[in-house]
Amino acid sequence: MIVKKYKNLQLDFDRQIVEQMAKIAIHHYPNEYGGFLLGYYSNDFTRLHIKGFLLVDKYVSSPVAFRRELNIKIHNFEKIFQETGLYYIGEWHSHPNASAWYSLTDLQAMNNIVSCNTVQLHNPVLLILSISSNKLLDFNFFVFDEDRLVVYE
Q1: Which intervals hold domain JAB (predicted)?
Q2: Distance (Å, rounded) from C-alpha 127 to C-alpha 6?
Q3: What is the DSSP letter of 18?
Q4: pTM of the full predicted structure?
């Protein structure tokens, strides 16, 4: 279990989940690829547990861009919550041959998520995977807070 922190919120995850996402992203190399993050908060909302992810099948991607279908209802997050107790908590995508740092486009996408009436997520998480053609190079988790993305340390 890896733990990262921002303010009074801890983020924990198994490295195996990140490795699984990286393997899938490498399969889509040299284009970006991504999906949704699933997890849950502790009862006191001081700890966020990332427990899984979903892939998307409707998307447009290139070596420098990834845009998923905007309608996230296709994944039926309510049903996933009822069956597993996991919530939609954010997004993940790869940056082939690039850093694991967010772009202006990534920041705007997270702002759009917060602004969406049907999502009701105030502090979504963004995971960016830096990949090469055959391995995970680096990764960063960010939280959207006060109109900016902040890296979990």
Answers
A1: 16-130
A2: 14
A3: H
A4: 0.93
